[in-house]
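Working notes for the structural subgroup meeting. M.R. asked for a predicted model of this chain before we commit to crystallization trials. I am recording the input and output together here so anyone reviewing the notebook later can reproduce the run.

Input as submitted:
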Amino acid sequence: MIRKIVITGDGSSTIHLPEWNEQYHSKHGAIQEAYHVFIKHGLHHFCIGENEKEKTKSSEISILEIGFGTALNAYITLLESEKFNLNINYVGVEGYPVSMEEIEQLNYAKELNAEDNRTLFKKIHKSPWDESYMVTPKFSLIKQQKFFSEIKDVALYNVIYFDAFGARVQPELWTEAIFKNMFKALKPGGMLVTYSAKGSVRRAMQSVGFKVERLEGPPGKREMLRASKP
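Returned structure, recorded in token form:
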């Protein structure tokens, strides 16, 4: 399948798949989408609370990312761990890893004003698969190359970043069976955040026990979903 590096609406890059007319991030802004969906409504909501200038909740968090992709979400989460003094255990699941040639063309460090931490982005990608790796003293990473249906973890995570390709092109990733696995993988009180707001996705989440909220979406999307495990 042909893959192209393109620039999104906020100046940050992503990978576009012309055959599917799909990309790894929102065409309206890859970084904006990551911050709004996964950082603001996932990481910050769990660890920091309403006051983003002062940590008021948990200082330790375990995160599962569904669709590790370019590692944009992981990279921003790592930067936030330094900013807010958070200890993060991060697991990223990806069936088809992005090549280092493609990674070298992404402009995230520049667009995040994180040139001083550019090497951390490379460390994330050069870390071994299926092994625990300390990217920084506060950020441990395990990258797992497998399909989402193979996830059998039980009560391990506080937050799930559900960032799979959209249901239009891969509907099998947005089923009750997948969300049942996600529900099991979360600890009680944990949550799943995703850019999707489709009614069928919301109903699939509810059917396996999630309490689902509609939230304001990132630029270019009216709504997104956050699902909580009681």
